[in-house]
Please model this.
Amino acid sequence: MDNQIVKQEQGVKWLDTVYKQAIRGIGIGNTSVVSMAQDYITKFPSKEAACKSMLNNQVLKCTSSGIITGIGGIATLPFTLPVNVSTVLYMQMRMIACAAYMAGYEPSSDQTETLVLACLVGMPLTQLAKQAGIKVGTKVATNIIKTIPGKFLTKINQLIGFRFVTKFGSKGVINLGKAVPFVGAGVGGAVDFLETRAIANRAYEFFFES
Model:
């Protein structure tokens, strides 16, 4: 049990650190998530259209071989994830958080962070809520998170952190072959297009169709 708690806390720390950097933006050309979202919103007739365009563009950026070394500041993050893992998480979290903001969520809130992390690792809200001891129906809209007390958010985040470590690593050690959807070392560290696209589709469904 103690080992499980350590893994949960480690996963939560990793995810929380990257998330806070992602919504603020680091490196040249990386504005805050709010500024990024507003730029798209002003160019499209609806937030739905703006979100779809943003997701498409972010997927393309994530598949660029230069993205791994193109974000300054990632290497200075105060934890032990490798730079390439951190960079991919950073890009994917920005993409999801931007979709959340367009759907009316405040990126800096604890509730929104929980939603973004759940979307990132692909854990259904119903499953998370029930495991955290919250009685829910068979389908839970994202808005339910707004009503969940902080102590339950903490439990949910621990579940997500544990899922992050156990899904992507072994005994708490991150395995690059599983943690990040790279096509392979021979393609310059490019991110797997299909996996990133799946996360983008999940983000749109999560915030605009749930």
Summary: Strands lie at 169-170, 173-174. Residues 2-209 form one domain. Residues 119 and 202 are 7 Å apart (CA to CA).
